[in-house]
Amino acid sequence: MTCRELADFILDYVEGTLARHERERFDYHLSLCVNCRHYLAAYQTTVDLGRRVFDDENKSAGEAGVPDDLINAILSARQR
To answer: What's the domain count of the chain?
Structure first.
């Protein structure tokens, strides 16, 4: 599996819906590639933060634990 293929399969991997054979290839690639391990960790953090934001609709993003830098980056990008 290449880094690009890993990126293509990452959602299925995180959700646990990746076929066994593909999951084995994914895990093997992760065992060899530190960059993809970092990418997976960042991806999982992003998904977790997104879920926490929507866990309680009455919470602001900051109260839900979303870093201020991320909130500011998103707001800045929306203004462009």
So the answer is: 1
